[in-house]
């Protein structure tokens, strides 16, 4: 599923008030971390991740790892923050994706 520019703007507007709920530190990226992110995105649909200064990875590494190993899409990267989106499997949690796909 490829997002249009209008859909990305909608998601960025909805994520404006969000705080990062995950971070990448010196332990780097691994499957356990990714599984936790997938569960959070499945529940919330829109999640921010921050990359700590001590991390051995940068924004591009996180983006590549998440997109290659899951269905989650990276909507935006700003500095050391990554915005992730994926439609929830549970219809009760699809508030944001209903707005995205109605555009």
Automatic annotation (TrEMBL):
Coiled coil: none annotated. GO terms for molecular function: RNA binding. InterPro entries: RNA-binding_CRM, RNA-binding_domain, RNA-binding_YhbY, YhbY-like_sf. Residues 1-97 form the CRM domain. Keywords: RNA-binding. This is RNA-binding protein yqeI.
């Amino acid at each position: 599923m490829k997002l249009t520019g209008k859909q990305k703007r909608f998601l960025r507007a909805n994520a404006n008030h969000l705080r990062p709920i995950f971070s990448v530190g010196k332990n780097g990226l691994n499957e356990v971390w990714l599984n936790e992110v997938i569960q959070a995105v499945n529940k919330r649909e829109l999640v921010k991740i921050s990359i700590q200064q001590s991390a051995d990875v940068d924004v591009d590494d996180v983006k590549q790892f998440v997109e290659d190993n899951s269905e989650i899409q990276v909507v935006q990267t700003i500095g050391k923050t990554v915005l992730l989106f994926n439609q929830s499997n549970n219809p009760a949690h699809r508030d944001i994706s209903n707005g995205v796909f109605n555009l």
